[in-house]
């Protein structure tokens, strides 16, 4: 179909591309699902639409209401797109150290930005949003870390798309943030084919966790626990900034201009390919490269890019 | 067999302010026993009384989260790096 009634109908149905030329193992194929093709530019368009439409259906979100959410960027941008089209006012709590382009895009869609301390990362943004939501009960607070419409969007969308396009899949690799992608897709794939392995990739936590006074201030997303995330994941691995940047640049060799977390995801897929004998690894590229041009990832010496990226949230 | 253990900010006060210490053991459980022997203040911080990992702590051997390896029975060898980190909301940026 090439004629759509709304831009929101363009969310999902993203392409899966074979990038096996990047595989270090001739017996392992690597495929990438390009979520940057979504109209708001990232995988988060899926959960933005899903969370809003579920809340409209069950009456917790009323016409003209204000939406408040925390985001390190992409969920905010997805919600900003959906909110603009549907006529909601949106407030996004955003750590001050996200890339400039993420803020600019929120401005494009008319979202209101509330800054949270960069040193507290996404955790700090989430806590501030929780406090603001408690103080303003008239706002609708989707809370992506605890909203079942988040994994549901992947259980009903991303997962079935991958299964339809690549039933040969043996491994699924994606970044771990809210865990919505991993638990939604992972659950769907394992129901169809229990042998499928689900691998999570995460950025180094580094100084973002220095603000914590004790482990009791830690946080595990409720959707991860409630969807048996601990049983569902087969592996969780950290991919460093340098490796993420290097693989982001290498993706250009196959014509893919993706964001830095996509580089991390591919690096995870490559690690996976090195450790298995044969298989088909599907990695998820969460967004396109546009929002990261200011990092200089594609043009500047990698040392400079890594130094610059250290203070910036790119995942 | 010494491994390198990286401590998060919240634990350094119990280890003389150090961010990295050496510990011996062939499994993680043994490494933690040795850590507590060296720094008694670390007792109960990472491993709870019932012998499991604290809910909001992630432990990595090299780059892999041990919850998805063999948990406390995960084997370690010389020069492995064991990192202890608080679990926080995802989407956090890089630091190290």
Quaternary organisation: heterodimer
If strands are numbered along the chain, what order do they take across the biggest sheet of chain A? 1-2-9-6-7-8
Tally of alpha and pi helices of chain A: 11
User: How many DSSP-defined strands of chain B?
Assistant: 5
- Per DSSP, what share of the residues of chain A sits in E-state strands of 2 or more residues? 15-25%
Question: Please, could you describe this protein's structure?
Answer:
The complex is a heterodimer of chains A (315) and B (96). Helices cover 40% and strands 16% of the residues of chain A. Chain A has 315 residues and is an alpha/beta fold. The two termini of chain A are 33 Å apart. Chain B is built from 2 helices and 5 strands. In chain B, strands 2-1-5-3-4 form a 5-stranded mixed sheet, covered by helices on one side. At the A-B interface, helix 4 and strand 8 of A face strand 4 of B.
Strand and helix layout:
The complex is a heterodimer of chains A (about 325) and B (about 100).
Chain A: E1 16-18, E2 28-34, H1 44-58, E3 66-70, H2 74-86, E4 89-95, H3 100-108, E5 112-116, H4 121-135, H5 149-165, E6 171-175, H6 180-192, E7 197-202, H7 222-226, H8 229-232, E8 235-238, H9 241-250, H10 260-275, E9 279-285, H11 302-309
Parallel strand pairs in A: 2-9, 3-4, 4-5, 6-7, 6-9, 7-8
Antiparallel strand pairs in A: 1-2
Helix pairs in contact in A: 1-2, 1-5, 5-6, 9-10, 9-11
Chain B: E1 2-6, H1 9-12, E2 20-24, H2 28-38, E3 57-61, E4 64-65, E5 81-86
Parallel strand pairs in B: 1-5
Antiparallel strand pairs in B: 1-2, 3-4, 3-5
């Amino acid at each position: 179909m090439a004629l759509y009634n709304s831009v929101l109908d363009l969310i999902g149905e993203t392409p899966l591309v074979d990038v096996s030329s990047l595989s270090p193992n001739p017996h392992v194929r690597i495929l990438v699902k390009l979520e940057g093709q979504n109209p708001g530019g990232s995988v988060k368009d899926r959960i933005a639409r899903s969370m809003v439409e579920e809340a409209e259906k069950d009456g917790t979100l009323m016409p003209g209401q204000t939406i408040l959410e925390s985001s390190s960027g992409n969920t905010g941008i997805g919600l900003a797109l959906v909110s603009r089209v549907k006529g909601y006012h949106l407030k996004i709590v955003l750590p001050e150290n996200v890339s400039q382009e993420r803020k600019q895009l929120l401005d494009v869609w008319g979202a209101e930005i509330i800054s949270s301390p960069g040193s507290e990362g996404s955790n700090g943004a989430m806590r501030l949003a929780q406090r603001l939501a408690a103080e303003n009960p008239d706002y609708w607070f989707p809370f992506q870390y605890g909203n079942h419409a988040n994994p549901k969007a992947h259980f009903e969308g991303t997962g079935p798309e991958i299964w339809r396009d690549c039933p040969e899949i043996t491994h699924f690799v994606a970044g771990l943030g809210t865990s919505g992608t991993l638990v939604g897709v992972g659950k769907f794939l394992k129901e169809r084919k229990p042998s499928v392995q689900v691998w999570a990739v995460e950025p180094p936590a580094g100084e973002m966790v220095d603000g914590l006074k004790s482990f009791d201030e830690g946080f595990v997303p409720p959707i991860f626990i409630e969807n048996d995330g601990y049983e569902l994941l087969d592996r969780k691995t950290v991919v460093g900034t340098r490796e993420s940047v290097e693989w982001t640049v290498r993706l250009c060799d196959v014509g893919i201009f993706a964001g830095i977390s996509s580089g991390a995801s591919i690096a995870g897929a490559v690690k996976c390919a090195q450790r298995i004998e044969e298989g088909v690894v599907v990695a998820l590229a969460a967004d396109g490269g546009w929002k990261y041009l200011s990092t200089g990832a594609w043009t500047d010496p990698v040392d400079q890019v890594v130094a610059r990226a250290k203070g910036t949230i790119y995942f | 067999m010494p491994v390198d253990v990286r401590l998060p900010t919240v634990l350094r006060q119990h280890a003389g302010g150090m961010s990295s210490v050496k510990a011996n053991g062939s499994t993680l459980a043994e490494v933690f026993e040795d850590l507590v022997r060296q720094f008694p203040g670390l007792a109960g911080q990472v491993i709870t009384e019932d012998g499991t990992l604290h809910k909001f702590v992630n432990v990595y051997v090299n780059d892999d989260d041990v919850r998805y390896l063999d948990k406390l029975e995960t084997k370690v060898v010389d020069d492995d790096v064991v990192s202890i980190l608080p679990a926080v909301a995802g989407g956090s940026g890089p630091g190290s």
